[in-house]
Amino acid sequence: MAPREVVFAVPGALDAPTGGHAYDRHVAAGLAARGWTVRMLPLSDRFPDPDDAILAESYACLASVPVDRTLLIDGLALGALPEIGARLGRKRPLVALIHHPLALETGAAPGRAAALATSERAALAAAHRVVTTSRTTAAMLAAAYGVPRERLVVAPPGTSPAPPARGSGGEAVALLSVGSLVPRKGHDVLIAALAGLRGLPWRLAIAGEARDRAEADRLRSLITATGLDERVALLGPVDAGRLVALYDRADLFVLASRYEGYGMVYAEALAHGLPVVGTTAGAVPEVVPAGAGVLVPPGDAGALAQVLQDLIGSRRRRAALAAGARLAAVALPRWEATVDRVAGALEAAA
Known about the structure:
Layout: E1 5-11, H1 19-33, E2 37-43, H2 52-63, E3 70-74, H3 75-78, H4 84-88, E4 94-98, H5 110-124, E5 129-132, H6 135-144, E6 152-154, E7 173-178, H7 187-195, E8 202-207, H8 213-225, E9 232-236, H9 240-248, E10 252-254, H10 264-271, E11 276-279, H11 284-287, E12 293-296, H12 301-312, H13 315-330, H14 335-349
Parallel strand pairs: 1-2, 1-3, 3-4, 4-5, 5-6, 7-8, 7-10, 8-9, 10-11, 11-12
């Protein structure tokens, strides 16, 4: 059998605290464990908004890869490389890894979103296989981006087993939200919902890097303006050990995402047996079954407030959803299956 080799191009630091980078780390490690030779190729952290110099450097860097090596390119970069096919040649084995379409990042101006969609559509046309993390995203890429269904491979993120959360043990219900401080995560919607529930016993911890400084400042101002400084903690990025401890001491997981290509933290919450409150955005309904959580329309602070009021006030209801979460956790994909699917896509593209 010919040696299996892949060059994996990822924008920014591989250890960045995002779900996409965590996925990339697991895939790289899993392929290596299966005997693949994996060469990581770091690209600029300015993607998906590179300037002309970064674009030229990135094309040159990718073109320097030997033509017989399969290229796996994270979609955060690939979508901003519309000339990838012309620059590298259509015959080069190329696999795209799409966490979610770039144009769906909340906050992009309409013109910018349209430009990103056009760029990503052109880049995807050059890919021999397109790996994506959910059926929802795969269907969107087929319908809106013209990716032939036979080229699509769905490889949902794995979730590591975890012991059931023990909960806070206190009178105040401990709410946990995990997600970078960017508009797409909907932390502002969550704070708006909680502003009307100050008469109930709760506290909220939000763990996530301030990737968008303007959004982080806006959230801090909103917390202060709603009088929630003493009840909402912005923890910033946390390491793996602290995150496990946060899940363990939480009573309820809540994330008001405006869009998710999968939603790895929802799955992590289920793995810890936590009842989940989320939204119907993107692929979240694929991850969170009805018996394990309650989903509301994205951006609807009123509906979110009603659900939180019900669950904060009902230990019995939270316990029922926690039982459903523990059942759902058994069916969550494992990383071994994820890597198997990615490896299959790489082999098919070679």
